[in-house]
Amino acid sequence: MSVLRFDPFGDPIRQMDRLTNQLLSGTRTPASLPMDVWRAGQEFHVALDLPGVDPSSVDITMERGVVTIQADRQQQYRQDDQVLLAERPQGEFTRQLMLGDGVDQENLQADYRDGVLYLTIPVAEQAQPRRIQVGHSQSSALEG
Fold this sequence. Notes:
By secondary structure, the chain is mainly beta. The chain contains 1 helix and 8 strands.
């Protein structure tokens, strides 16, 4: 059973909106945020690259085990500036993580530093490995 899953394709309607905006505005909008996910002990860690994003534009919501991360990076130039090259993605970034039953969804933590958003998701106590004590009695069930 997977404890942490993610949907690399995202919401198809949102992708169509993004494509339409991209075609109409002439700017490139990224489909998702690059991320790393790893487990260290009893926690999952997620690192999402958000260079140049104002931390106040980062929005994290959770609904029915799905964490949605949205952020916005605005262009640095004005509309009347002569742009010679524009390769950096602009606009809204979105990524969704589907959390499994084995994580503690109530204690998810988020921290933004150096252009990276870090999420820490503890493993649920009921999903943590535990030792089962083997009892023993004086008489055998086979005696009789």
